[in-house]
């Protein structure tokens, strides 16, 4: 008999009142949970995409400095799930998901202009985020598991949401 995976708790929101765009992932992978850092896996394209959009090398910065830069530029981070059971890091293994309070995003960020879902599992919550009356994007996952999209193709898709919300030129 296989033991049920332990209930995992996600990371807190990185959101400020002046946040213009929030990127919502599904739930942190094992490496991100272990390091308590969003997008900690070295092959994840999240930090390289932001580095390319903003023309700065975020990966060379300490994590807390990266978060400061994000917030200064109007970008927020969070996940659609506050907790779940999962073995490994794949979204397909998520069980017993407990949602975050996505309906309350505007209370946390009254300056919000849009919401970007990082990947398909996150996008399953588009009913909730769409009800906020803001533009919502379903962006290609930055996960290394999403190998069918090239870095350049991901970057172009992400640029659209960043430009539309004033988070990138």
From TrEMBL:
<keyword id="KW-0378">Hydrolase</keyword>
<feature type="domain" description="Uracil-DNA glycosylase-like">
    <location>
        <begin position="12"/>
        <end position="162"/>
    </location>
</feature>
<keyword id="KW-0326">Glycosidase</keyword>
<dbReference type="InterPro" id="IPR005122">
    <property type="entry name" value="Uracil-DNA_glycosylase-like"/>
</dbReference>
<dbReference type="GO" id="GO:0033958">
    <property type="term" value="F:DNA-deoxyinosine glycosylase activity"/>
</dbReference>
<protein>
    <submittedName>
        <fullName>DNA-deoxyinosine glycosylase</fullName>
        <ecNumber>3.2.2.15</ecNumber>
    </submittedName>
</protein>
<dbReference type="InterPro" id="IPR036895">
    <property type="entry name" value="Uracil-DNA_glycosylase-like_sf"/>
</dbReference>
<dbReference type="InterPro" id="IPR026353">
    <property type="entry name" value="Hypoxan-DNA_Glyclase"/>
</dbReference>
<dbReference type="Pfam" id="PF03167">
    <property type="entry name" value="UDG"/>
</dbReference>
């Amino acid at each position: 008999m296989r033991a049920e995976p332990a209930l995992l708790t996600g990371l807190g929101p990185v959101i400020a009142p002046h946040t213009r765009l929030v990127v919502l992932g599904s739930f942190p992978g094992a490496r991100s949970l272990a390091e308590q850092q969003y997008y900690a896996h070295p092959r994840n394209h999240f930090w390289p995409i932001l580095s390319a959009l903003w023309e700065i090398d975020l990966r060379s910065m300490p994590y807390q400095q990266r978060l400061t830069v994000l917030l200064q530029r109007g970008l927020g981070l969070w996940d659609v799930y506050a907790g779940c059971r999962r073995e490994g890091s794949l979204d397909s293994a998520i069980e017993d998901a407990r949602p975050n309070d996505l309906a309350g995003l505007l209370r946390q960020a009254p300056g919000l202009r849009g919401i970007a879902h990082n990947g398909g599992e996150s996008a399953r919550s588009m009913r909730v985020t769409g009800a906020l009356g803001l533009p919502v994007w379903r962006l290609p996952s930055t996960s290394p598991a999403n190998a069918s999209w090239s870095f350049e193709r991901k970057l172009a898709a992400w640029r659209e949401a960043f430009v539309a919300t004033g988070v990138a030129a």
